[in-house]
Amino acid sequence: MALQLGSRIRARRRQLSLTLRDVSETCGLSVPYLSQLERNQANPTVTSLAGIARALGVSLNYFISDPEHQAVVVRRTDDTYLSVQEIPFRIKSLAGRGQGLELEPMMIHVEAGFSSPLTTHLGEEFLYVLQGALQLQVGEDRHTLHPGDSAQHASTTPHAWANPSGSETVILWVGTPKLL
């Protein structure tokens, strides 16, 4: 059964741990009006819906079209990596470009000697060390992870990675919301 528009808005807002007031301040619509929308007691204009989409970090299609429930397959022979100039990672998306999917699984190669600053963002992260070692800081807790070790945390908690070794570390990273 397809979700109604109001239910999709509420679900996305709650997924991001935002209040109606948070969304209201970002999109410029009143809290009572947003509440009516979430309860399917009002219909937004395209302009209002675009503002809500922006506030919730999604495109209009998120609210308009039903997500396709087809499998997205990425073959091991697909050696397409993304390199981000600001960070010394090689990143391979393991999910392709499936529509309506929330999780973002990636294979990340972390260069030797890399150390990140503490950061926060919306979502949740899971990582599994495949090769090498990774130092993970989440809040005040520090952990050294080795092959076979995993960790999961809310991305809203300050966190950082470091690879103090002399060789590359490879991790399987799964997070929300999608980055690529």
From TrEMBL:
Cited Pfam families: Cupin_2, HTH_3
Residue ranges, compositional bias (Polar residues): 152-163
Renumbered residue ranges of the record's region Disordered: 143-163
Coiled coil: none
Matches recorded under InterPro entries: Cro/C1-type_HTH, Cupin_2, Lambda_DNA-bd_dom_sf, RmlC-like_jellyroll, RmlC_Cupin_sf, TransReg_Diox_bact_type
Keywords tagged on the record: DNA-binding, Plasmid
Record's GO cellular component terms: cytosol
Residue ranges occupied by any HTH cro/C1-type domain in the UniProt entry: 9-63
Keyword DNA-binding: yes
Top-level taxonomic group: Bacteria
Presence of keyword Disulfide bond: no
An MF annotation (GO) of this entry: DNA binding
The protein's name: XRE family transcriptional regulator
Organism annotation: Deinococcus sonorensis KR-87
